[in-house]
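agent> Task received from the user: take the single chain below, predict its 3D structure, and emit structure tokens. No templates, no multimer pairing.
agent> Plan: (1) validate residues, (2) run structure prediction, (3) serialize to tokens, (4) report one or two observations.
agent> Step 1 OK, no nonstandard residues flagged.
tool_call: predict_structure(input=
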Amino acid sequence: MGMGIALITPFKKDGSVDFDALERLVEYQIENGTDYLVILGTTAETPTLTEEEKDEIARVVIAKTNKRLPIVMGIGGNNTRTVVEKIKSTDLSQVDAVLSVVPYYNKPSQEGIYQHYKAIAQATSTPIVLYNVPGRTGVNMKAETILRLANEFPNIVGIKEASGNFAQIDEIIKNKPNHFMVISGDDGITFPLITLGGVGVISVIGNAFPREFSRMVRLAMRGDLAGAREIHYRFTELMELLFVDGNPAGVKSMLSMMGFIENELRLPLVPTTLKTTERMRQILDQIRLLEK
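)
tool_result: status=success, residues=292
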């Protein structure tokens, strides 16, 4: 799979979606080594977008990409019936897969999670990528549930794993069927996860550094661990700073410094603190100096 990008949603100072900036970001990704785009995920601030805005973002990204990269679309939620209806009513003909998060807030049992994804898998022939992020959803999808889904539904093709539980991730990789992919959902663990048998990352930092981070992923997947490790350590502190004040506040601050977007988020999210911003600026200056 390589490096996918959890694409942000740029906003103008008046709070509206900045579609010009969005198109520039898509082109930047295409020109700098990104393997696929993930639209309308958590990093896109989808809980604060209207349905009309989501539809227009999807239309703009699909048109701008023009089949130059695969596209994964986020469609998830904590109401199974609503998610199923959304999948059925959405034109997925230009989409390569759907990314669907574990239901949040409800804290369903493992059987409830299984039944949720069973309903989704049976609602479409489009490939489904599971998304396990217990730090946000409040519940962990266990390895046994993931493997059960992977074995029973051929169109459940992978998981974005952001549990940070390496014992769990190792168990999934060890026992998964051949068609099922394990993808890092956390930039910071991408390098070690690939060494276990993961197939890349759905990245946040790649919004700002697609060329560098995609190179790290490719080197690791080719077995050049020394080369990949060097890039990994180069970005370690920056990856940590991305999430100090919440996601996507960190990466939006970086992209603003780089001149791509306005540093605007929708409430309840707010920009990074001055302390975080200044440390990011210092690291960005160092990285740019190294690149010269």
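agent> Step 4: summary for the user.
The longest helix spans residues 274-291.
agent> Done.
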